[in-house]
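Problem: given the chain below (324 residues), write out its structure.
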Amino acid sequence: MLVFTINRIIQSIIVIFLTSIVIFAGIFAIGNPVDLLMDSRATFEEMEQIKANLGLDKPFWEQYYIFLKSAVKGDFGHSYIYNVPAMQLIFQRLPATLELAFISLILSIFIGIPVGVVAGIYSKNIFSKCVMFISVLGFSLPSFWVGLMLIMVFSVNFGWLPSFGRGETISLFGIEWSIFTLDGLKHIIMPALNLSLFGIAFVIRLSRAGIIEIIHQDYIKFAYAKGLKNSRVMFVYILKNIMIPIVTVLGMEFGLILAFAVVTETVFAWPGIGKLLIDSINLLDRPVVVSYIMMTVFIFLIINLIVDLIYTVLDPRVRIKTND
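Solution.
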């Protein structure tokens, strides 16, 4: 286990290094942020001075070397627009996106698994067919359209839920949280549901397929023949065996939510890191964009490692080979 973890850490460092080159090269090729930062009436000398102050007058490899040397120390540069450290700006917005991601993940688990299990047990029932049809809609409908429909129904027509913003927050451990207030919970319901639809649909289909495959296995029939309770057979023998692909999907979904919650955060004006990314791209705020993507890569690597370790807990047959 220790050797495996060390190998994965080394691989992660290599991936982060190669990714940083690709990201920095892509951002470098997009354009010159000075054109947006400076007034159109600025003189050529003033623009060159700003480039020199920001280090943008240097060639690509020299800029990358300066960035890499600072990044190793935890300094990813200052935002051109807000004039604060890029990571500080991201961490200020991160709690809002984390809240959205956790609530979306919880909805995927507590809606997707039970519905998928019931649909799998009664696979030939009309309920199962309806569930499969609805899950297809969860895959197919664009999230921005679903978000607008949720706003139209629950905010405009019924007036039950607020349509934008994060709502009231409270400070806990120096971080502002909205899920611990009633107003905050009202604000998060629609964006979290909108963001979780794909995950719910995917988990339903995986759960149903796993139940259909496992429920007719000999060891399940033997467990029932021994007189074990239905609850014990379900939780110990069935659910444990269908959870491995589901854990993979949920792990990847959590990472994708953190990285690509842009559409939902834009539709609901949710002040998270996704909206910050869009604003930073529009303004060519290089340090923020690079910091955001680097943080996303790091999160995905951590999630992959956690998922691999959870495999060994769910299935004793899975053994991590230290020589891989």
